[in-house]
Amino acid sequence: MHFVATVIVGFLVLLISKDAVGAVVDCANEIATGIPETECNALVFLYDATEGDNWTHQSNWKTDSPVADWYGVAISSGHVTEIDLHDNHLVGSLPAELEFLPELKILNLKLNQLTGGIPAELGNLKKMEWMDISQNSLSGSVPPELGEMSSMFVLALGKNNLSGTIPSELGSLGMLNTLYLHENQLSGWIPSQLGDLQSLYALWLNENRLTGPVPSELANINDLAVLKINGNRITGNIPSELGNLEHLEQFRFDHNDLEGDLPDTLANLKPADLIFFVDDNHLNADAAGNALIPLSLQSWFNEIDPGNRKIHNQTLRPQAGVIIAPVSDLVTTEAGGEDAFDVVLNWMPANTVEVEFTSSDTTEGSVDPSLLIFTPDDWNIEQKVIVKGRDDDVVDGNASYFIDSTVTSGDAAYNGISTESVEVSNIDNDRYSVVVSPVSGLVTTEDGGKAVFRVFLSQQPSADVRVGLVSTDVSEGAADSDSLVFTAGNWNTPQIVTITGMNDDQVDGNQQYTIQTSITSDDPNYDGIESANVSVTNIDNDAAGISISPNDGLVTTEDGGKASFRVRLNTKPTETVRIEFSNTKAVEATVSPDILFFDVDNWFELQTVTLTGKDDGVYDGNQEYSITSVVSSNDANYDGLPTANVNAVNIDTTAPSIQVFPVNDLVTNEDGGVAKFRIVVSTEPTADVMFELRSSDEQEGVVQPGTIVFNAQNWRNPVEVTITGQDDDAYDHDQRYWVRTGVTTSLDQDYDSIDLPDVSVTNQDNESCSSPPDHVSIEFSSFASSPEPYICRAVTELASPAGTKPLEIEQGAEVHMYSPVVILNSLFKVEVGGVLKIADTQ
Fold this sequence. Notes:
The protein is mostly beta strands. It has six domains: 24-267, Ribonuclease Inhibitor (Leucine-rich repeat, LRR (right-handed beta-alpha superhelix)), CATH 3.80.10; 322-427, Immunoglobulin-like (Sandwich); 434-539, Immunoglobulins (Immunoglobulin-like), CATH 2.60.40; 546-651, Immunoglobulins (Immunoglobulin-like), CATH 2.60.40; 658-764, CalX-beta domain (Immunoglobulin-like); 776-840, no CATH class.
């Protein structure tokens, strides 16, 4: 309370100073402002803290106009309920004084330049329903106090610079529908308490630095439709419980570190319109790098739109292996010169892995250590093996030998796997020379690709030896140093020379150049001796070419389904390049656009070509087609350049069928009333299709026409069938009958012997009976001698609200009333109640 009083008093002093220089707002005049003084003060704090004088829209703020007229402010029942200043150039920090707006329901400040932290005091706004402060530059942590905003429906904090963990207190927002925390720098685990958000529809946690597993408690959010955790560092398996989210529309788990298999329970998700991205993880995959789809999921997975699913994993577990580098061009010397190679595993083993090394010729070189041990904890940490030359005191020239290795492990994936041998050259020290290795086969690229070679001396010098390095063509490549110096202390230590390729922006093909060496020294054994030059090839990156991707596997459908590919040039042309596309089967799909142009300004930009499937009206199955292209240009490097065809298939969505509709609930009447139904075929038949129509009871209705023939000329025109009711002059109630459609006959196998559904019709009776007398005494011994009109009335008229009417019947009489025969042995009465009942009165 002391804090609040201090703030308000301080603010009143501020207002007085503003009045002194012409400010007209008077927050103390609640009649003029229309809101409490504390709420007016809070609005002025917001204005001043965010440079309100520079807002894009600021009409009536801090004037004597009622606060309800201030731009972006809404008032209800004398309190501020809404502030909407989105995209209004607010610069500065959010003032904590906003807590003095107790009735505030909507705060929309997105798309501004707000900085600083989110005030914890905002948690006091218990009636806040919608707070959107996304797309600013807010920093710091998400205050746990926001979990006290019990009325919150939408909380949008995305696209800021927020850091720290996601507070578990947010799981207390029982009314929350939407939670946006995406594109921040949030870290730590996803709190399991978010699974308590039973009203949540969308959860955006993507593009952060979140770690740990996916909490299975998220499966408790029954109505969750959007779940985006992509672009984080989430580990572990995909929880099987997430298959319970049957309303899920977006399953974005891509670009994480997930592993294992896809759970079978995902088949519970509805595939229609589902976005299913699990790419760029560590999921178990096939040889092509695609996440393995269990047999139980294959049907479900195939129902997902191909454009809405991504399963390729860039960092999936390959076949277990031991990586040794380098495996060639290692050099030792008989003077004890050493070289080294590094060893690491390519994937985490399930058990300890031992790699043992041996030299193929221990008189030339040895290894140290000879045994390396990798565990599941350090499998990805490189370990170094030193190879040391041995001196045989014989002028035997340089000798090659190999370092071989064997692998043993309790992990079957690693045990006994083959490894590469390391080739080593041991330099004979019995002559003076400068050793350069390798001297040929080196390759650089115009993209800055590098190559290396090593230089050392064969014998210890008596004076420094300088090795000069000069490129014969510096426009193609150059060494990282123009000279190397060897001394008596480092003469046998190989020095690495790095050559970097240079880009000349010319389509000049691959170019050869040489790094020339020269030797100078005060040691006469080295001065002026010849040494090897190094031959290098610089790969030209300016070769003309056209990239089309993808160029295979595209799918369109006859109902207008689309597919697309993208095109760009590989190099900058000297003139405009025109690419014209055509379809080998134009009846199957359209190409748009069918001409692309590339020039010196847009050659590197991807342009999209869209294929749209067409319906040919014929059941011809799925049709493969290709998009070909012709390239023309005044640039000779591109004119006539061949390009890859784009292969696609158009899915035939037309199946031969005959439809009759409607087939139920048709009504005619005995006054000649008619009913109609239609018959259509779905595709063009290759031969006449004929079938008969007839009425099951022509006393109730007749059918026209009686014979229908569909052929290649009239198949698109529906046939209308008319049924006319017939009068039988008898009181027989409404009668049901059928139009029998028969079985088709045709030389077209797709339309032959189709058993069409019969059509149900009711013919309404137009006869009725007269009312019975109040009291009727009937004596008869059989149904044949009974008065027909009275029996009719007994069944129809007595089933009415008229009540019970006595009907005296002679003992032993037999009565038939449109029901099984009833034997009467005593006096009965007819009770009326919708259904005729005969009850004993005794």
